[in-house]
Structures are given as C-alpha cells and as structure tokens.
Amino acid sequence: MFVAVALKGQDVKQQGQETLRYKCQYCDKRERTPALVRRHERVHTGERPFKCHLCSKTFTQRGNLNAHQITHVKMPPILPSTSKD
Ligand SMILES: [Zn+2]
Ligand SMILES: [Zn+2]
C-alpha cells in the first residue's frame, strides 16, 4: 500500500507564516524574500517589466510572459504581409 507515503507530507505544512517575514507595503500579503515582495508589489504599482519580443505585450511577472509566449509557439503572430511581386 502507499498510505505511508501520503502521510509523510503532513509535517512539511507546519513551516507556514514564520518564514513569510517580508510584507507588501500596499496590502497584507507576505513573502519569504524581499525579491518576492517586490515582484508582488507590481500588482499595485502597475509596473510591467517583462515584455514579449514578438508582439510587444507587457507583463508584471516572468511566468505570465512565459505563459503568453507559449501561445506564439502554437499560433504565430499575424504579421503584415510583405509580398514582393
Ligand atoms: Zn500587496
Ligand atoms: Zn507576444
């Protein structure tokens, strides 16, 4: 049976709040590192440092940009036609 493996994950959960010592200056959200807080604070400041080089869309987080760029792989951006007859 695999019951023992499932129970093992329980004490990992206990670490919680104590490690989240850096607080957002705009809301009550907490993170483990100053870098993570700054990244979160962009949702308040509207800063969008991550830019798609394919269509110039901008994003607050790298993960969002990566997720967006996957759509280009499936469906390339429509470029103006440059036929040279
Ligand atoms: Zn916040
Ligand atoms: Zn794009």
TrEMBL record:
<dbReference type="InterPro" id="IPR013087">
    <property type="entry name" value="Znf_C2H2_type"/>
</dbReference>
<keyword id="KW-0479">Metal-binding</keyword>
<keyword id="KW-0539">Nucleus</keyword>
<keyword id="KW-0804">Transcription</keyword>
<keyword id="KW-0863">Zinc-finger</keyword>
<dbReference type="InterPro" id="IPR050527">
    <property type="entry name" value="Snail/Krueppel_Znf"/>
</dbReference>
<feature type="domain" description="C2H2-type">
    <location>
        <begin position="50"/>
        <end position="77"/>
    </location>
</feature>
<dbReference type="Pfam" id="PF00096">
    <property type="entry name" value="zf-C2H2"/>
</dbReference>
<dbReference type="GO" id="GO:0008270">
    <property type="term" value="F:zinc ion binding"/>
</dbReference>
<dbReference type="GO" id="GO:0005634">
    <property type="term" value="C:nucleus"/>
</dbReference>
<dbReference type="GO" id="GO:0000981">
    <property type="term" value="F:DNA-binding transcription factor activity, RNA polymerase II-specific"/>
</dbReference>
<dbReference type="GO" id="GO:0000978">
    <property type="term" value="F:RNA polymerase II cis-regulatory region sequence-specific DNA binding"/>
</dbReference>
<comment type="similarity">
    <text>Belongs to the krueppel C2H2-type zinc-finger protein family.</text>
</comment>
<keyword id="KW-0862">Zinc</keyword>
<dbReference type="InterPro" id="IPR036236">
    <property type="entry name" value="Znf_C2H2_sf"/>
</dbReference>
<keyword id="KW-0677">Repeat</keyword>
<keyword id="KW-0805">Transcription regulation</keyword>
<feature type="domain" description="C2H2-type">
    <location>
        <begin position="22"/>
        <end position="49"/>
    </location>
</feature>
<protein>
    <recommendedName>
        <fullName>C2H2-type domain-containing protein</fullName>
    </recommendedName>
</protein>
